[in-house]
């Protein structure tokens, strides 16, 4: 009996060990299975992320297509301008590229007003030739120009033209994407589009021409490539709005070009659209903003804001007023003015005969002066 009980006890322990072994094996395979399931779930998540990425790529491609459509629309309003008439069907002929000085303009009204650079079209009453995107050519007459801004408006006898949309250059920010459109060199590269960013704003540059010097102020600086022939062409936002007119570049460096902010000329364009004329008003001064002062020989000029009255022109409203050379104009009709472009933009919004209030400082004296605008000769 004792022997039988010992064998039975031994068998019991063997069975327990076997059961524990089975339990350990079961838990091991269960953990392995669970781990593989978790790996599978993570893989599925990765596939979802991959799908999302594909959707983003599609969105980017769609935006790119939209940008291409926008630029394509803008180029319809970009024109070629030359001072010499072509002997061929187009002013963009290879044989005439060099001598014709081909440049660019932008249509700003459906009835034939073209915005460009004065150095390209010539001064008021000058003649030039305009070539449209659809191949038609027209004789043009310059109806307005401003040498300091290097801007001009040319009229052609045409109607139902595609018009560029003008933006708000006062809201530009450094780093924003921009595109320049123009006609560098000539026929082969007409309506070339280059891209870049707004590199800086409110730039002032000195231009030496022979023995005389002039200053262009409040310019938009961009690294979008601007070559000879791009003059007068638009600098645009990705939405197609024109924020500037390309004018000059630094020849001794790459990626430094400039455009005149569009806001300064919008009131001029508006009056041509509404009245088919623009009678330019003036107060009769030559002035500098604070950005020009570092270029001047007079080291004693010191002011932080406003416009410095450098010269009062004879037989103008300013010459018969209390305004004096050396005064600082800080505001027009209580509207703060700090750049020459802001001054011009404000005067362009007025009519001959309008009376305006000038807020000035003269040393430690603050003063208000009333001036009635005259006609610019």
What are the key terms here?
Thrombin, subunit H, 377 residues, 3 domains, disordered N terminus, 5 helices, alpha+beta, six-stranded antiparallel barrel, six-stranded antiparallel beta barrel, extended, Pdz3 Domain
Describe the overall structure.
The strands form 4 sheets. The chain has a 6-stranded antiparallel β-barrel with strand order 1-2-3-6-5-4. Strands 7-8-9-12-11-10 form a 6-stranded antiparallel β-barrel. The chain is extended. With 377 residues, the chain is α+β, with helices and mostly antiparallel strands. α4 (263-275) runs parallel beside α5 (340-348). It has 3 domains: 75-155, Trypsin-like serine proteases (Thrombin, subunit H, Beta Barrel), CATH 2.40.10; 170-263, Thrombin, subunit H; 279-375, Roll (Pdz3 Domain), CATH 2.30.42. It is 28% helix and 33% strand. A hairpin with a 5-residue loop joins β10 and β11. It has helices at residues 2-75, 97-100, 118-121, 263-275, 340-348, and strands at 78-82, 103-109, 113-116, 127-131, 137-146, 151-155, 177-182, 192-209, 212-222, 234-236, 242-249, 257-261, 281-282, 285-289, 307-312, 328-332, 335-336, 355-362, 365-372, 374-375.
């Amino acid at each position: 009996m004792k022997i039988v009980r010992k064998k039975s006890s031994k068998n019991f322990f063997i069975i327990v060990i076997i059961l524990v072994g089975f339990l350990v094996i079961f838990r091991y395979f269960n953990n392995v299975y669970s781990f593989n399931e978790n790996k599978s779930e993570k893989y599925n998540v990765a596939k979802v992320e991959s799908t999302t990425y594909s959707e983003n790529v599609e969105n980017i491609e769609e935006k790119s297509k939209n940008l291409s459509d926008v630029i394509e629309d803008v180029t319809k309003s970009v024109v070629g301008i030359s001072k010499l008439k072509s002997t061929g069907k187009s002013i963009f002929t290879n044989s005439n590229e060099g001598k014709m000085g081909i440049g660019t303009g932008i249509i700003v009204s459906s009835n034939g007003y073209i915005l460009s650079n004065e150095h390209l079209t010539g001064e008021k009453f000058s003649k030039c030739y305009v070539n449209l995107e659809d191949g038609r050519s027209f004789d043009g007459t310059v109806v307005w120009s401003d040498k300091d801004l290097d801007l001009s408006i040319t009229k052609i006898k045409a109607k139902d033209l595609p018009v560029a949309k003008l933006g708000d250059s006062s809201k530009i920010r450094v780093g924003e994407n921009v595109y320049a459109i123009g006609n560098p060199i000539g026929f082969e590269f007409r309506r070339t589009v280059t891209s870049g960013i707004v590199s800086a704003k409110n730039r002032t540059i000195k231009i030496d021409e022979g023995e005389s010097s002039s200053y262009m102020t409040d310019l938009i600086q961009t690294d979008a490539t601007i070559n000879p022939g791009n003059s007068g062409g638009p600098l645009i936002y990705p939405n197609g709005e024109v924020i500037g007119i390309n004018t000059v570049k630094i020849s001794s460096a790459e990626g430094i070009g400039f455009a005149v902010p569009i806001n300064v000329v919008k009131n001029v364009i508006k009056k041509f659209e509404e009245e088919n004329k623009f009678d330019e008003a003036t107060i009769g001064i030559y002035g500098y903003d604070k950005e020009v002062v570092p270029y001047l020989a007079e080291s004693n000029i010191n002011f932080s804001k406003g416009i410095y009255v450098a010269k009062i022109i004879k037989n103008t409203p300013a010459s018969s007023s209390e305004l004096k050379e050396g005064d600082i104009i800080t505001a027009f009709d209580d509207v703060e003015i700090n750049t020459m472009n802001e001054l011009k933009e404000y005067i362009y919004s007025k009519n001959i005969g309008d009376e305006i209030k000038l807020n000035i400082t003269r040393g430690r004296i603050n003063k208000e002066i009333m001036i009635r605008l005259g006609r610019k000769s």
